[in-house]
Amino acid sequence: xxxxxxxxxxxxxxxxxxxxxxxxxxxxxxxxxxxxxxxxxxxxxxxxxxxxxxxxxxxxxxxxxxxxxxxxxxxxxxxxxxxxxxxxxxxxxxxxxxxxxxxxxxxxxxxxxxxxxxxxxxxxxxxxxxxxxxxxxxxxxxxxxxxxxxxxxxxxxxxxxxxxxxxxxxxxxxxxxxxxxxxxxxxxxxxxxxxxxxxxxxxxxxxxxxxxxxxxxxxxxxxxxxxxxxxxxxxxxxxxxxxxxxxxxxxxxxxxxxxxxxxxxxxxxxxxxxxxxxxxxxxxxxxxxxxxxxxxxxxxxx
Length: 302
What we know:
The protein has one domain. The protein contains 15 helices and no strands. The protein has helices spanning 4-19, 22-27, 33-55, 57-61, 65-88, 94-101, 104-116, 122-141, 149-172, 178-200, 210-233, 239-245, 249-260, 267-287, 292-297.
């Protein structure tokens, strides 16, 4: 049987593959981006909250006001992230959007240091730097394939929202089960997205026969099988490590876009993908043994 540590570290690459399907599924929809984002969070929250109600009722009822407010803030940030990034995928290329949204580990490293007393190691920063260089190569080679300044800007802001969500989640996650934490956070995101959809007047109905299937895929694979796995790992691993692991998404997503959407990547995308993988290896290897401050930060707060 694999050790607990092996399972925790093995969950990260599995989660990366799962979240990498998100951009492809979103691009297959005909509904407005805000509608797709709302459906994704509403159904994910409904599934997890129902499960939490059946298995973690005492945890839900006994939650402190502080914890609930932190989860609500994390949910709002996650909802804003999904709204912006879903829209960005229709305003720029898959490679550019995915790379730019995955620049969040830089912000995670800074935020975690200030708020969680987590010190990001030098080797991890070197790995982050290499992954960003590789991602820049990917996006640079893709700049002639419909890249948009507006879409790129939305992806960058979405990255900042996701960084805040990861860091707050690292604190709020302690002492809570994965289904309770993820269900409440997704519920907060769903509430924000439903409000935004209502204000936009878009309506929640599908625009094509493929929309419901794509929404179901978004719920099952990148959300429950990807983001929820990352939520689970936040209980055991530093936020900066979880954040940098997600940098593998541009490589996988670019490959899927080539196979499914026929967005053939240039040679620069292949070269950049190799640099990203090297950077990931260095960053995860350097962060595998938490420092003393990181170990202290894993103790559940009162």
